[in-house]
C-alpha cells in the first residue's frame, strides 16, 4: 500500500486505549483524521483495568499495575478531560479505580470512539518508510499479523509496565520473597508477616498504608529529605536506604539491621517501547527518551508523537494538551520547526535542567514546578487553549499530601466554581 493520497483522509495509528490513547483517538477524529486505536487487552482503560494475572514465565508481561482498594491520589476534579469532566453526582473527590475506569468507558461512549478501537490487537512492530509508517498488528482472536500503513503514529502505551529494579548488594542471597509494586494486588498475602517496603513515593506510601493493617511489622525505607507522616501507622518504622541485604533481612545505611519475610520494591518504572524498530530514531538511555521535541515529538521522524512521558504533572490534562499541540502541526495549521531547530531547543532545555540540579537522566521528563511553564509553552507555540487556572490551583493545593497527610487528605472534597476558583470542604 502506498502513501495516502493528499486528497484522502490522513491515517492515524494510536498505540494503546488507556487515558492517553483515548484522547489521542478522540482529538484525531475531531480534527478530521482517520484514526484507529489498538489495544492488546480485552477492555479499554489501560492501567486502570484491574487484573489478578501474574507472569506465567520470565518472558511474560503483565500490563496492569492496579491493586485492590486503590483510591486516586489526585481529586477527580483535576483528572477529567478539558471537555469531559467527572459527573458531579459523585460526592467524593478521591475516587476508586473502578470509578476511573467507568469514567473512561463513558468518555469513549460519549465521543463514539468504540468503533475505532481494536481490542485484543497488539502493535508488535512499527517502522518508518519513506513517506509513512508500516505498522504490524497481531490479532489475538485470529492469530494473524498483517501490516497496515499510517501517516501518523501516537505512542500511548503508558509507562507502568516494565519495573525499575534497583541494584542493591545482597539481593541475590536474600531468601525471603521479593516483588515489585507492579505485581502487588492484595494486602492479605502479608498477614502476620514482617515486610520491607522500598520507596516512599505515592505508591510506596499507599501500599505501606494498605499492608500495615494486616502485617506484623512494616519497615519503610527511603531517602526523602523530609520525613513522611506515619504517626498514625503504629507498626510502621521508617528506615534509610538499604546498605545490603542479608539472608533473612537487611542492614540499613544507619547501621541498623532488621529481619523480614517480604520485600516490595516501590521504585518506579522504565520507559519501554518494544514495538518500535531501531530506525524509528528514538532511544531510551537511563530512562531519558530522546531525541524528542517538547517531550513528545520524535525529532528524527516527527510524524510520530509520544503522549504522557512527563511525570509529576496533571496526567489527563497534559495528555490532552500534548495531543492538541501535535495535531496543530499534523493538520497543517502550524509548521514544525526544522530538525536543527528542534535539536537546539532540546539541548537548551537539557542545559537548563542540568543547571537547576536535574543531572539524573531518569528525571529528564520530570516536571513538578516546571510543569506550569511547560503548559504555557505548548499553548503559546501551537495557539491552543491552556489548562484552566482552577485546575492548576487545585493541583498546587494537592501537592505532597500523600506524604504529609496520608491519613486524612482523601477526605477532602473539592468543587469547581468557575475557570479560576474552587472551594474545598464547602469553604
UniProtKB/TrEMBL annotation:
Family annotation (SUPFAM superfamilies): FAD/NAD(P)-binding domain (SSF51905)
Presence of keyword Flavoprotein: yes
Enzyme class: oxidoreductase
Cofactor: FAD
E.C. no: 1.-.-.-
Keyword Isomerase appears in the UniProt entry: no
UniProt-recorded Gene Ontology molecular function terms: flavin adenine dinucleotide binding; N,N-dimethylaniline monooxygenase activity; NADP binding
Gene3D superfamilies listed in its UniProt record: FAD/NAD(P)-binding domain
Source taxon at top rank: Eukaryota
Entry keywords, A to Z: FAD, Flavoprotein, Monooxygenase, NADP, Oxidoreductase
Family per similarity comment: Belongs to the FMO family.
Protein name, entry field: Flavin-containing monooxygenase
Protein species of origin: Drosophila lebanonensis
Organism classification: Eukaryota, Metazoa, Ecdysozoa, Arthropoda, Hexapoda
